């Protein structure tokens, strides 16, 4: 009987392990499969919040506490990167949106851009950085600190820049964000206590595979209408896709340049984190009550998010072998700076 039970669990575990071993290829494939099968979007859209909670839980569950404490003892670099992604980016986007009149001419798009800029980095950013051979620990620590304060910064910037564009108040947005993060952290803590850190590390590939499945659920839920929108308004849809790529790579490039003193490879890791915004968190906090243009833009952002790790991996791996632009001592001095 026990061998029969083992065989029942062996096949799913092997399947998840295989899926997890596909890495960036699987992440890239998700976006095309999700867009190509619209009925899945209608089927899975009611479960967006649950998918986001599971993704957050998996990420919190896998936090390396030792590495986290080590970086927090040298907070200058982490504090600078956190301030850039949670304060610098939304301030710049908000000012540009108002200066160009975008909030009046295209409020749905302005709302999308502001929610994108206010969001914390994606919880999958450390895993993607690791798959690309970049410094995942630095990304993880900055991600944790940015996520911890985003309920407060998002509430502030919503009151400053969004006015009445949101269906909920800035305070409610902040409280909902805090609730989603707290619930995920609590669930992750319980799982770590029940199974232990060693078991989680030992089953890394099956967990990666399960993470990819949940990413697929999320991508399908928000991309279910992409094909219909493309057929109905092709120019507008393609323009939003181009804009999403432009913003993604602008954030990546600007962040890499700003932090180049710590070494190109580590700066690229931070650039990847800053450009990968956790729009799912904003969807959960707003319960998906957003204008159609905002939904469509969010769907278009999935293309650069899922494709860039696959496209950038060769560059990242070359940097890890040849990066001599900034010795490690520079990074250590910056991290040690009071």
UniProtKB/TrEMBL annotation:
Q: Where are the bilayer-spanning segments? A: 44-63, 75-97, 109-131, 138-161, 173-195, 207-224, 236-259, 279-300
Q: What is this protein called?
A: Na+-dependent transporter
At the highest ranks, the source species' classification is: Bacteria, Pseudomonadati, Pseudomonadota, Alphaproteobacteria, Hyphomicrobiales
- Keywords of this protein's UniProt record, alphabetized? Membrane, Transmembrane, Transmembrane helix
Query: Could you name the domain of life of the organism this protein comes from?
Result: Bacteria
* Signal peptide region: none
Gene3D superfamilies for the chain: 1.20.1530.20
């Amino acid at each position: 009987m026990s061998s029969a039970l083992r065989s029942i669990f062996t096949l799913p575990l092997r399947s998840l392990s295989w899926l997890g071993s596909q890495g960036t290829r699987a992440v890239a494939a998700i976006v095309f499969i999700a867009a190509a099968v619209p009925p899945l979007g209608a089927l899975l859209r009611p479960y967006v919040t649950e998918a986001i909670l599971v993704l957050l839980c998996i990420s919190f569950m896998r936090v390396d506490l030792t590495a986290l404490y080590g970086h927090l003892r040298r907070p200058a670099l982490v504090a600078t990167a956190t301030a850039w992604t949670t304060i610098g980016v939304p301030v710049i986007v908000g000012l540009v949106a108002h200066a160009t009149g975008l909030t009046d001419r295209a409020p749905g798009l302005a709302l999308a851009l502001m929610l994108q800029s206010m969001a914390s980095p994606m919880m999958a950013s450390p895993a993607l950085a690791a798959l690309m051979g970049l410094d995942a620990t630095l990304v993880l620590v900055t991600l944790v600190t940015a996520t911890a304060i985003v309920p407060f910064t998002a509430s502030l910037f919503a009151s400053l820049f969004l006015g009445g564009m949101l269906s909920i108040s800035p305070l409610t947005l902040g409280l909902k964000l805090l609730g989603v993060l707290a619930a995920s952290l609590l669930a992750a803590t319980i799982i770590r206590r029940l199974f232990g850190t060693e078991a989680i590390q030992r089953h890394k590939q099956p967990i990666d595979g399960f993470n990819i499945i949940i990413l697929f659920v999320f991508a399908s839920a928000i991309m279910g209408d992409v094909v219909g929108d493309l057929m109905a308004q092709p120019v507008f849809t393609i323009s939003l896709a181009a804009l999403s790529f432009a913003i993604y790579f602008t954030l990546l490039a600007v962040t890499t340049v700003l932090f180049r003193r710590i070494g190109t490879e580590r700066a690229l890791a931070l650039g990847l984190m800053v450009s990968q915004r956790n729009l799912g968190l904003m969807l959960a906090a707003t319960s998906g009550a957003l204008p159609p243009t905002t939904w469509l833009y969010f769907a278009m952002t999935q293309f650069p998010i899922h494709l860039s790790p696959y496209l950038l991996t060769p560059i990242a791996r070359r940097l890890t072998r040849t990066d001599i632009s900034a010795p490690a001592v520079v990074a250590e001095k910056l991290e040690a700076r009071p």
